[in-house]
Amino acid sequence: MNIETLRDYCLSKPSATESMPFGDETLVFKVGGKIFALTSLDAEPLTVNLKCDPELAVDLREQFDAVRPGYHMNKKHWNTVIIDSSIRESDLKKWIDHSYDLIVKSLPKAARQELGK
Q1: What is the CATH number of the domain that holds 71?
Q2: By its UniProt entry, which Pfam families does this protein fall under (predicted)?
Q3: Which site in 28, 48, 78, 79 is 20 to 30 Å from 61, CA atoms measured?
Q4: Which residues lie below 8 Å from residue 75, measured CB to CB, with a gap of 6+?
């Protein structure tokens, strides 16, 4: 997956938005005003930070060398995924979906209703 594919997939999520609140190098994806993914545009290789259930986060780190505790994030709830050939695109999409769903579930009821969730 490259940056364009990552961006397109994140923005395909209902009501997802993108912004650059941390500067020109960091692309942030939000739903309901809360971050569900962020990526550094100048990182080599490409990485993405994703919210994750704490138990699953540990499991993924143990299973995949390319999954690490969230860089500059709460390491209990966030993973940094190095997007390389060791990560299948289908797995990455599943992890993006999981991150998005966790954020949507954390939104107030009125915000979830606006999203149709």
Answers
A1: 3.90.1150.30
A2: YjbR (PF04237)
A3: 28
A4: 69
Q: How far is CA 113 from CA 4, 18, 27, 52, 110, in A?
A: 30, 21, 26, 23, 5
For residue 60, give its domain range: 3-115
Closest CA to 35 of 13, 18, 23: 18
Cα R_g (the chain), whole angstroms: 14
What is the SS3 string spanning the chain? Answer: CCHHHHHHHHHCCCCCEEECCCCCCEEEEEECCEEEEEEECCCCCCEEEEECCHHHHHHHHHHCCCEEECCCCCCCCEEEEECCCCCCHHHHHHHHHHHHHHHHHHCCHHHHHHHCC
Q: pTM for the complete prediction?
A: 0.92
